[in-house]
TrEMBL record, chains A, B:
The lineage of its organism: Bacteria, Bacillati, Actinomycetota, Actinomycetes, Kitasatosporales. InterPro entries: Homeodomain-like_sf, HTH-type_TetR-like_transc_reg, HTH_TetR, Tet_transcr_reg_TetR-rel_C_sf, TetR_C. Keywords: DNA-binding, Transcription, Transcription regulation. One of its GO terms (molecular function) is DNA-binding transcription factor activity. This is AcrR family transcriptional regulator. PROSITE patterns: HTH_TETR_2. The keyword Transcription applies. Residues 37-56 bind DNA. Residues 14-74 form the HTH tetR-type domain. It holds the Pfam family TetR_C_11.
């Protein structure tokens, strides 16, 4: 991320980024991750390999950026009219997505090609934003709400820690229980 | 880890493992991580490169095994006579060790060269064992104690998640607060 220059939307920089990300996604599907090389991605994206090296450093950093793009939430959390229901549902979906083979692969890529931790920070910021949306909605309804960092500690952290370090027996029920305990204990 | 054959203590297998681990540690200190190669490690350890490839797969898996060795606790947690004090102190030390540049580098290595998650599982098992020791000691003193998995969720998971994904403002006081809340809320 630190190598990425300021991006002017619609400028050449944005077009290059989109072409390269698309090339990575297509080639991952076609030839698989282990076979992927920078020259192969460059050829598909219509840029020179040195454009990729200059901007991303190496293949692992590029894969990290692509992974973070995938981990960006596409919509705000569903609104069920009550924080407990919102958080329970969101926690369960978050666990399902992150613990899926695809989710694990992206999380791994995001961490691996990210020596300075910028992409890991982005992943966490996405989760914090989703949590913040639910809490603000609940506060607007007059509910008493914990702060974002508490929900990160109580729900997001255990889910992510267990996926990475202690994956046995991870279920939707576990995620829902974490959400309940974050609000009631 | 899956490549590692059953090790007979004192047998050739153990001697090779010790020699190779020692070579990695020495060379990391002398030439630094980025310069490390399998042939270099093999030469220092007095084995052939193919011995290393056969046993560890590649350099990253070898580094992952060496990292996990470093993350293994050297002693049981200090006994302060009361669970709250034991857990507060342990949480603070755990955070300090894991968040240090060395701790972060080992955690990263442990995760990266570990596609099947065995080494990550070992790291978590080490933490669970330390927590289990404190809880068993407290139960023996007649204290009421939570279960190991609760302490993992409430103390270990937030510390590890924040080190990896959300490292701003991590302090000993934060770790101590997690320990207090795990026992009182």
């Amino acid at each position: 991320m630190s190598r990425r220059p300021m991006v002017r939307p619609g400028g050449r920089s944005t077009r290059v980024q989109q072409a390269v990300h698309t090339a990575v996604r297509e080639l991952q599907a076609e030839v698989g991750r282990p076979e992927l090389t920078v020259p192969m991605v460059a050829a598909r994206a219509g840029v020179t390999p040195s454009t990729i090296y200059r901007r991303w450093g190496d293949l692992q950093e590029l894969l990290s950026d692509v992974a973070v793009e995938h981990l960006r939430p596409e919509a705000p959390p569903e609104d069920h009219g009550r924080l407990l229901d919102d958080l329970r549902n969101w926690a369960e979906q978050f666990l399902e997505e992150m613990a899926s083979p695809t989710g694990r692969a992206y999380m791994r890529d995001a961490l691996l090609g990210d020596p300075e931790g910028d992409n890991a920070g982005l992943c966490s910021a996405y989760a914090a934003e989703q949590v913040g949306t639910m809490l603000a909605r609940a506060a607007g309804r007059g509910e008493e709400v914990p702060d974002v960092e508490t929900v990160i500690d109580r729900v997001v952290a255990p889910v992510m820690y267990r996926i990475l370090f202690r994956p046995d027996g991870l279920t939707g029920a576990y995620a829902r229980r974490l959400a309940e305990e974050a609000l009631t204990r």
